[in-house]
Amino acid sequence: MLKLKTANADALYSRISDSAKLYLPVKRAGQVNYDLWESGCEVTLGEMTVKSPKDLFFPQSEDLMAFRVSGKSIEIENPELPTEPFVLFGVRACDARSFDVLDRVFLSDPVDSYYEARRNCGTVVSLGCLEPLRETCFCSVFGIDLAEPEGDVQAWVLGDEMYLSAKTEKGEKLLAAVKDLCEETDGAPLAAAKDEARAKMAKNPLADLDLTGFDGEHMMEKFNAPEWKDLYQACLGCGTCTFVCPTCQCYDIRDFDTGHGIQRYRCWDSCMYSDFTMMAAGTNRKTQMERFRQRFMHKLVYFPANNEGMYSCVGCGRCVSKCPMHLHIAKVIRTLGGKKQ
Amino acid sequence: MQAVAEKVIARAKELLASGEVQRVLGWEKGEFDYERTPALFEQGNIDKLVYDKFCAANLSKKLVEVSKLEGKTLALIKPCDSLSLNQLLCEHRVKRENIYVLGVGCKGMEGKDGLCMKCEFCKGKNFAISDEVIDDESCREVPQSDRFAAVRELEEKTPEERYAFWRSELSKCIRCNACRNVCPACTCIKCVFDNPDSGVAAKANVDTFEENQFHIIRAFHVAGRCTDCGECSRVCPQGIPLHLLNRKFIKDMDTLYGDYQAGEDAEARHPLINFTKADAEPSVVLNRGE
Q: Which of A230, A237, A326 is facing B181, going by the closest CB pair?
């Protein structure tokens, strides 16, 4: 394990940037989001980013292919898949787990080559939480250890020191390049800090959410629960929850008419929107109640039923803090969880 | 506030029990202390109705849908929300005969981080519309503030600085449409940006310039009808000060056509769809851009 003074973190970022693009939480215009590191930018590791880091593997919009028309022929151009390495730094345990969820969707057959290419280019440096970032955090409910995140490199910031530990080959390669900026350590002070973090997490307000009954066995009971009718009432039908969510992975494919051809792109979609999964037959969900129910059924029932019990919520709490009407997943679990009916 | 809140709850229960109204549109508590969610109440759940300093959400837009239900709905309306409701009534979007407006006194609303931005500049404590009002002296004090100070600051910037400011703010947009969906002036049944046949439908921030335009166009669309309720900025997940666009338009209209508050008078025609001899000459308007 390596450590360095946090005061020297800029030297670390600069070194990483020499060989790869570095993305990490940066404050711009008052908000913290994953952004490209540049000398002098306001790196803000201690706050939850508004958007999750999923953009780096699954951008909000992405060109898929282009069609060019000349005379009577149509030419199809596939975009070049990204090959440039990048480093994603400061990923919290919840977001690190979200990559497992996304992998199951995009890397199972048929593999999504666009996602796969970005995933292969990326090295993830995760950042263990030594206290819950916010009162809205509830990753522990999904069995995530906030202090021990998954990733190619694990990092922790304790006091004025940053600890770095490689977990994969990619991670070892990254640390080899920054070794001279750091000193070796056994990381002894971390153990107590991690235990303290877990103890604090256990006392976070949402840590007692009970997922009993959210499984494939009770699908219809949950689907038909009368509570949905009250739960959804104030839903604005905006896409905030889906767009800040680290695991929402639905997208729409659209064609843009360039005048002499077509640019086909995909962009994030939201099951909260009225035209979500709209097809010629017009059989998509007609009411906001159905749309609202779909989002939570997907995260808490359908996904685990199809993925050996893995939930597709990671308890990051972004939707909890950002829903304009406070109709978030914690409220849904509180209302419908803890019972098998 | 406590005394007013207790009276409001008691009165709502009374009107519901007497059958004068069939349901109540108010707020209920959420997971955290500061969370209040708009909700409909009937006899079975009226005990969950709350009114306190966290009831920031403007309920007037919800009445577009709720006033179509059978029977009368009691709506708890704060002074600034009453402007939105009156504007909706002026546009025939809410069925007046199906609502009972209980004006509720307000001392400024708070969220998780303290006083709501929209309450830093209070537009007054009068009710533009109400069937009944419950407030007290403490709810009638209007804190002194300069609503247009931030707009003037922007006006004093050079065009390049102003452009950079809006680019940096609007480029944070994730196109969740929360601002549009919460806006009481945005009540189109199908928004042009949601309609695949419109040619301008946009679901994601495909390019940042398009996002920037979306907000500017939306501000133009609601100009004259926007009451400056501030919900757009309250709900923005990226903290974009969208209300400053609307406020700039309001300030310009005040300057060119005389002071006007949308929603104050349900019969009024706003300056952009009205003509008076005192209106500024078109040349004055045109030359302002130079």
A: A237
